[in-house]
Amino acid sequence: MKSSSFLRSSVLEGFFLCSPNIFDYFCSLRILERERVEDSEVEEEDETRTSQHRRKPEYPVIDRNPPFTKTVANFNTLDYLRLSTITGISVTVGYLSGVKPNIRGPSMVTGGLIGLMGGFMYAYQNSCGRLMGFFPNEGEVARYKK
Questions:
Q1: DSSP conformation class of 103
Q2: Is 90 within 8 Å of 114 (Cβ atoms)?
Q3: What is the DSSP letter of 141?
């Protein structure tokens, strides 16, 4: 069976060598067919993967879709501590990475900005997770149930 398909493909390739445009066209069709099959397999995997990752909140839900202002207002001391720690480490790394090319200042500022954004996103994620019930939220429940 392998030999007949190999023979058939080699004959077709030999035939299409005379006109490379047609050969390229059929090769591109084969590639598109392969990609379509792979895409359908990936879609099936994505469906099972998303159904596995959808989980129900383990803690009381305060707000299913908290707005930006409520999420930022919900930052606690630990969130601010994490934000400042990540920013401080990034400033230090930026400074140390700029020592050799002698661009300490700009490198330090860039590292600080990257750390500030990363720290803010981390604190925002934790705060939002507590409001949506995915992280432990005893303090938030007590505060918002009043």
A1: -
A2: yes
A3: H
Q: Report the C-alpha gap between 83 and 97 in whole angstroms.
A: 21
Ramachandran class of 133: left when φ > 0, alpha when ψ lies in -120 to 50, beta otherwise: left
| DSSP secondary structure letter of residue 136 | -
pTM of the model: 0.62
Q: In a structure prediction context, what are the per-residue pLDDT tens digits for the chain, which is 146 residues long? A: 555 555 455 555 555 455 556 656 666 666 666 666 666 665 555 555 555 567 889 999 999 999 999 999 999 999 999 999 999 999 999 999 999 888 999 999 999 999 999 999 999 999 999 999 999 999 999 998 87
User: How is the chain split into domains, by residue range?
Assistant: 2-53, 68-144
Dist CA 132 CA 39 (whole Å): 33
Tell me the C-alpha to C-alpha distance, in Å, between residue 17 and each of 10, 26, 98: 10, 12, 56
